[in-house]
Amino acid sequence: MNELTIRSQSRCFEGMVMYCSHFSQCCNINMNFAVYVPPQAKTQKVPILYYLSGLTCTDENFTIKAGAQRYAAQHGILLVIPDTSPRNTGIPGEDDVYNLGSGAGFYLNAIVEPWSQYYQMYSYVTQELPDVIQANFSVDATRQSIFGHSMGGHGALICALKNPEKYRSVSAFAPICAPIQDEWGQNAFSAYLGTDFALWQEYDATELVKKTQLSYPILIDQGMDDTYYIQKQLLPEVFADACQSVGQSLNLRFHAGYDHSYFMIATFIEDHFIHHAKALLS
Ligand SMILES: N[C@@H](CCC(=O)N[C@@H](CS)C(=O)NCC(=O)O)C(=O)O
């Protein structure tokens, strides 16, 4: 059940970048993910940091662009980078647009046919994938954290907020912060979740933080020249207001001149590792 196919592996900072695939029970199809196994895993069980990518990404974008392996090796943290959706499901139109279907799973469990047959990304990243990682790598499953970018930054926030005990820390680069209030979110939620507004709220970070607070601080970095920030797809201020109203600790940092790209992520990735290492290694 947890059998992995290793598509490729390359040595990196004395550890290993591995591209893997496996049959996912909950998504009902083969899924891809990338892993960075730090050198420390040769002799001990290491903590795990999940990274959820944004719209249009595969397991490759972060792996090749963020420069994360240097810091994962330094801190002895195993990185897991799932794909952003099931692929090649045969659902009509699945590859037609960048913000729905392939590359746009939104880390939720779809209830509307035909998406619901495959698009169970919330269960996949919070339950099935952690089981697969535990069964196949030298990890300490009691020590795991999560971060992500854009759609994946939102994914990280909801996974943490819905599971306050499961993760030790959370952070995000330019996350979508209030999907039920922006166009990307409304488009995806109506396709995947239908018209049940109460269910929409169950997958919205701003709504969730009003109900459940985390005992640890949330770190968010946002570039001020980010087109999607300017177009109000991300709405970090709305999330910040909700955090403030309920006393959730949030370190929201704005950076002049930075856009939505992986250049921004590469610039601030070290700080995110410091943030997570503090929680994972204490
Ligand atoms: N409008 C863009 C949206 C895609 C986009 O900016 N995706 C971000 C995440 S929301 C990303 O990480 N892209 C891949 C990359 O930069 O490597 C498109 O049509 O491609």
UniProtKB/TrEMBL annotation:
GO terms for molecular function: carboxylic ester hydrolase activity; S-formylglutathione hydrolase activity. The keyword rRNA-binding does not apply. The active site is at S150, D226, H260. Its EC number is 3.1.2.12. One of its GO terms (cellular component) is cytosol. One of its GO terms (biological process) is formaldehyde catabolic process. Keywords: Hydrolase, Serine esterase. The keyword Hydrolase applies. It catalyses: S-formylglutathione + H2O = formate + glutathione + H(+). InterPro entries: AB_hydrolase_fold, Esterase-like, S-formylglutathione_hydrol. Belongs to the esterase D family. Serine hydrolase involved in the detoxification of formaldehyde. This is S-formylglutathione hydrolase.
